[in-house]
Each structure stands twice: as structure tokens, then as C-alpha cells.
Specification:
It is a single chain. The protein is α+β, with helices and mostly antiparallel strands. It folds into two domains: about 1-105, no CATH class; about 115-180, no CATH class. About 20% of the residues lie in helices and about 40% in strands. The protein contains five helices and eleven strands; from the N terminus they run βαβββααβαβββββαβ. The chain has helices spanning about 15-20, 65-70, 80-95, 120, 160, and strands at about 1-10, 40-45, 45-50, 55-60, 100-110, 125, 130, 135, 140-145, 150-155, 170-175. The strands form two sheets. Strands 2-3-4-1-5-11-10-9-8 form a nine-stranded antiparallel β-sheet. Strands 6-7 form a two-stranded antiparallel ribbon.
Amino acid sequence: MLDGVKLTPVGLNPSVWEENPLLNFVSRFSHTTNEIEQRKRAKFQSLEFAISECETCTINGSLHKYYNANNTNSNDLTFLNLLETINNLKLNFSIDPNTTLIRNLEIGVNIPLNYDPDIVIQSLISHKKRSFYPMDRDNEKIGFECSHDRYRIKIYNKSLQSKLQNNNLLRYEIKIKKTAKY
């Protein structure tokens, strides 16, 4: 299932977002230098909308959490759910899926187990000669990740991360950091 994304809607006029009543843009202020950051940001559900000083629009966040509207991605996101999400983004924020560039992409699958996911997680050693290292969330080790030049693999206890009771859910994710240009 598709989850995290970084998108650039090409050709979108920033005023479309600035005038959108669903978005409240703010800029960061440095108390040290008294400078105002030129990038404007707005949060809506799980997505961050940003407009840079050169008028480039970007979206960062989880499409799965956006679809659920409750900041969770521990259930399944079907292809039809994804299409509905894309259509919603088009209607609410004028994002044309035909001209939007995908900068980063995170794909994950939740795997229900009839045993503790930590049995699998503690068995991880390496991937393509790269070691796994611990993933911490709120000072709690929930799994391991392995980083490569273009992507990162994350394997963790989704039940622990999402605080799901009586549930043995293992999450396997691939986060694509760079795409090749052909």
C-alpha cells in the first residue's frame, strides 16, 4: 500500500493554496536572527503543504493517514481508497495527478501474525551487506531499519507503534529516497 509521499504539483499557482480556506499558512520566525523563513507551511490532516520563496508548491506526508482522516495507517488502504484520495486532493487542493512529480515515495504492508512480531524483528541481521539499526519512537524500540543510497527498509512492530491492543501486526516499508532519471 502507498503511504508517505513528497509531491510537487508542477505549474500550480501558489495563490490557489493561499486562498484555500482549508489551509492556514504560517512562516517560521527565528528569535536569534529575527529572520522570517521564506517558506510558508500549512497542515491539513496528515499532509504538510508548503510554498517556497521561488513559488514552488510541495506536499509532504501520508496519503494513507490523510484518507483515514484520523492520523492512523494501521489498516489496509486499497487501490480504490488511493484513487479516492487522489480525487479528493484534486478537488480540494487543485492537484493534477497527471502533472504532479513524485519526489519521495513510501510503500508499506501490514502483515498480521499469529505470534509476536518481535520474533521476526529480533531475527534481522542485514540487507545487501548493510546492517539494520534500531528504530525508536518516543524512546521505545519498535523495530529496525536499513539504509541504502536510494531507499530505506523499515521493519517494525506496527501494533506497538500504533498502540493496538491484542494485535500482532508487523509492518514492512520501503522508503524510496531518490529515483533514477531515464
